[in-house]
Amino acid sequence: MIINPYLKAGMWLKGNLHTHTNNSKCGHYSLETVIDMYKSHKMKYDFLAITDHCMLTELKENYEDIIIFPGVEYKYRDYQTLGINIKSYSDDERNYDNHQQIFNKVDDEGGLNIICHPHVYEDNYWPVEKLLQLNGYTGLEIYNNNVKFDNKGRALATDLWDNLLSNGKKVFGFANDDMHVFQRCGCAFNMALCEEKSSTSIMEALRNGSFYGSTGIFLNKIDAVDNRLYLELKHHNIPAVFKFIGYQGKVLKETYGHEADYTLLGTEKYVRIEISREDGCMAWTQPFWLE
User: Fold this and answer.
1) Does the pTM exceed 0.90?
2) 189 strand-pairing partners
3) How far apart are CA 278 and CA 280, in angstroms?
4) Which of these, 20, 125, 141, 256, is most buried using a 10 Å CB contact count?
5) Is the Cβ–Cβ distance between 248 and 240 less than 8 Å?
6) How far is Cα 10 from Cα 198, in angstroms, rounded to an integer?
7) From CA 270, how far away is CA 287, in angstroms rounded?
């Protein structure tokens, strides 16, 4: 049986879950300016999480045309994580041994825990051994745009994702801007399949894996019927490479065009789909698990 995270009908909503204001030492713009960036022409984000370093930035109850989630980026430098849609913040930012307690607290408040930029500074910034011991995180940033532009390490962390998935961790992959300066706004996002444009519906989609990460590719359809997976691009004028990836990161099938399908053999354990274009844009579905 295929566990399909994209079963519900609804609307695709665009959002970023890692955003800094000038409340962070490394941020540059006011909260209002940041929100205006993501609401601007052609950006048109539907949701945004404000995740300043080691503090909970105060938000209004409602914002016009966009849903804003309160959040925090935990820890001073090492082993950083995001807490999304949380109600309070308390932590010793230099204590790197209390992640499980943080995850439990965020979860109790109805929030999401996301592992930040696993390959920033060095490939072993977030060791797989440490992540295998922790529970309660929804997923990890498989792409972090700020890491790419700062040349601080590797922006892409799908290798670690496959390692976790192959070890039985059912975690999702997020693509986030990690926005500090204007030029990096809008370069990575998550498309969530939601019943309606509301904070409750968005959080439900993110918690259940009903979203895909992207740096510029949009999908029109993600289907899993019987034992067949099927994807279709929204824009048919730009073809892409589709890779169906399984256990231990093995490429099960690769094809080129505007759509792609894969027939499951029943032995794959999980299959995720990675899409790439020659201009460098990419997108990643969540894993389809086999049970």
Assistant:
1) yes
2) 214
3) 5
4) 141
5) no
6) 12
7) 6
Q: What is the DSSP string of 256-277?
A: EESEEEEE--S--SEEEEEEE-
Note down pLDDT in tens along the chain; length 291 residues.
Answer: 889 999 888 999 999 999 999 999 887 899 999 999 999 988 899 999 999 999 999 999 999 999 999 999 999 999 999 999 999 999 999 999 999 999 999 999 999 999 999 999 999 999 999 999 999 999 999 999 999 988 889 999 999 999 999 999 999 999 999 998 887 789 999 999 999 999 999 999 999 999 999 999 999 999 998 899 999 999 888 999 999 999 999 999 999 999 999 999 999 999 999 999 999 999 999 999 998
Residue 47: beta bridge partners? 15, 67
d(CA 242, CA 244): 7
Query: Token digits for 181?
Result: 């300066």
Q: Identify the bridge partners of residue 213 per DSSP, sorted by sequence position.
A: 190, 284
Exposure b/e, 16-38, CB count within 10 A at least 16 = b: bbbbbbbbbeebebebeebbebb
CA distance 265 to 250: 14
